[in-house]
Amino acid sequence: MDSVNVTIRVEREVRDAANELFDELGVNITQAVNMFLKQAIRERRIPFEVTAQPQVRYAVMRIEEGEGHGE
After folding, report:
1. How far apart are CA 35 and CA 30, in angstroms?
2. Does pTM top 0.70 for this prediction?
3. 18 CB-near residues (< 8 Å, 6+ apart)
4. Of 1, 55, 63, 70, which one has the fewest beta carbons inside 10 Å?
5. SS3 per-residue string spanning the chain
């Protein structure tokens, strides 16, 4: 299978933390990105939940459930 180069920009700290994690998992960043892309294609979606402001959504949910008012 032919390979192509894909260039992405990430913060240095993100790259370093990802490399450390992937080292522990026994893969490199190229392999990890390929796993992500193949899973996204297979599932026809981003393979994790993407939300806007998840902390705000969680807080609203707790308030609506009565947890935020000392009840």
Report:
1. 9
2. no
3. 10, 29, 32
4. 1
5. CCCCCCCCCCCHHHHHHHHHHHHHHCCCHHHHHHHHHHHHHHHCCCCCCCCCCHHHHHHHHHHHCCHHHCC
